[in-house]
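Duplicate of #3305? Posting structure anyway:
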């Protein structure tokens, strides 16, 4: 039934274009979009039975399928992750000497399936993006995709000790802004704006519109795109109207929270979705240009994730590239040393979401202690907090790997210093200190932290009693804990797991 509905819809949409796109409402229905996505997902799964690392049949396919919510067999996700691990290991963690979009693309796909790019076969794929000069060697492409990758789950800015110029997010934003053309658009080279590159630049800038310069550039970019749009609602690049250009503009509008029915992007009654669907074939694939008769995989993958972006917008979900809602889709065991551990579920659930990491040897070391800086980083990732600048501590330097996490945790009121303007980042975290911070995090999550219980039966500091009482009453801590003891990595995993479950964040 869905196949007949979808094919009938595609025919009516094609007919509507011939008649001046008078049936645009058909292209915007949530139910109909879901039907289109279902059939196109079947086409893609049938075309690529084993995705590998690569720009075709790899990351964009994985991203689209994961963000669409389509029914995908478990072994498909597991197979892709295994292929990614094998590829990264074979490369020795160096995906390319000069094209750093290779890292960004893989980061996006791994994030989409709920896997951590910070530990793939023992390599942190975020680290290369901390090298500004090497990242922007590709020009605007490098900066755009680095931002999209880093912001996909608000990853801390990676510190790259080998970089001649340590990158910041703002440097990438400024680079994109500096490449804006007089007409308001962007291109890889030359003085004429290209719709694909302009749309991608807008996708990357979407999270920075609180900055006046970025907001102005976005508005100018939208005007430029509107002026470039064809009479049939589509876009042309390199002299040819094509599906991919239309798809990229759809994604850009969705990232910016702009309706696809926005009057600036409706030409002669034709919306972007109307135009995109004219490239769609009966089998669910998409052509690159109107004159072709066979599906093109690049066009099919980009058109598919554009449909996913449109459907997510209709349902009020996070946009395509804002993946804090991405759930772990792989089922592999993360750490060999937590097999049959009483806290294995908590450890692996948080590790799969990129909240917890292993050590350099690939193991978790569940009984090791945890530092205050490590705990701050875990809390920021666990609560998916946007980066903010908090208190400045005398023993936290801007170049420290934990500086952003400590600043953010401080800004949200989760952590305080230890007195004298210091934070003691390398200091061992105690159970009672963890309880106090967890109670503050619970309040941040909207939980009521007032309790009739008490921690009077425990030997603890006075400042920790209310936090301990809440964590005990909420089931975040076990009653047999020693508040003054050093918290172990497995205990922290269980505490945070319990909190996120209680706050309905998992």
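Output from current build:
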């Amino acid at each position: 039934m869905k196949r007949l509905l979808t094919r009938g819809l595609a025919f009516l949409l094609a007919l509507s274009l011939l008649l001046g796109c008078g049936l645009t409402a058909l292209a915007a229905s949530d139910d109909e979009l879901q039907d289109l996505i279902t059939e196109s997902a079947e086409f893609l799964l049938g075309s690529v039975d084993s995705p590998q690392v690569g720009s075709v049949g790899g990351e964009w396919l994985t991203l689209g399928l994961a963000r669409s919510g389509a029914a995908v067999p478990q072994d498909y996700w597991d197979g892709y992750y295994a292929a990614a691990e094998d590829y990264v290991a074979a490369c020795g963690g160096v995906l390319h000497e000069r094209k750093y979009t290779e890292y960004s693309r893989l980061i996006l796909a791994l994030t989409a399936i709920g896997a951590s790019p910070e530990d793939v076969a023992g390599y942190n794929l975020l680290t290369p993006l901390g090298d500004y000069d090497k990242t922007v060697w590709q020009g605007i492409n490098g900066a755009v995709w680095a931002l999209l990758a880093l912001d996909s789950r608000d990853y801390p800015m990676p510190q790259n000790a080998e970089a001649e110029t340590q990158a910041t997010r703002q440097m990438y934003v400024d680079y994109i802004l500096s490449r804006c053309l007089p007409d308001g658009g962007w291109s890889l080279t030359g003085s004429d704006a290209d719709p694909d590159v302009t749309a991608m630049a807008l996708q990357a800038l979407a999270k920075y519109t609180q900055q006046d310069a970025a907001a102005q550039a976005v508005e100018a970019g939208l005007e430029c795109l509107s002026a470039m749009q064809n009479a049939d609602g589509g876009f042309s690049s390199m002299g040819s109207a094509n599906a991919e250009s239309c798809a990229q503009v759809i994604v850009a509008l969705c990232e910016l929270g702009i309706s696809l029915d926005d009057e600036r992007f409706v030409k002669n009654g034709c919306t972007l979705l109307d135009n995109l669907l004219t490239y769609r074939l009966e089998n669910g694939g998409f052509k690159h240009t109107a004159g072709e008769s066979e599906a093109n995989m690049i066009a099919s993958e980009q058109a598919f994730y554009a449909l996913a972006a449109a459907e997510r917008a209709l349902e009020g979900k996070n946009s395509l590239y804002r993946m804090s809602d991405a759930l772990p889709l792989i089922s592999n065991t993360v750490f060999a040393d937590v097999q049959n551990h009483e806290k294995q579920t908590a450890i692996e659930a948080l590790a799969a979401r990129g909240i917890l990491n292993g050590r350099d040897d690939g193991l978790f070391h569940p009984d090791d202690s945890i530092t205050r800086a490590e705990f701050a980083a875990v809390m920021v990732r666990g609560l998916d907090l946007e980066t903010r600048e908090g208190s400045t501590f005398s023993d936290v330097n801007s170049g420290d790997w934990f500086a952003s996490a400590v600043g953010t945790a401080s800004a949200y009121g989760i952590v305080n210093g230890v007195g004298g303007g210091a934070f003691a980042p390398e200091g061992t975290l105690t159970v009672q200190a963890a309880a106090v911070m967890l109670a503050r995090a619970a309040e941040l999550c909207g939980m009521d932290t007032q309790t009739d219980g008490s921690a009077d039966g425990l030997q603890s500091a006075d400042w920790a009693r209310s936090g301990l009482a809440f964590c005990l009453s909420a089931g975040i801590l076990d009653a047999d804990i020693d508040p003054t003891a050093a918290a172990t990595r497995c205990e922290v995993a269980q505490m945070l797991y319990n909190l996120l479950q209680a706050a309905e964040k998992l």
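Confirmed duplicate; merging threads. Residues 433 and 464 are 7 Å apart (CA to CA). The chain has 19 helices and two strands.
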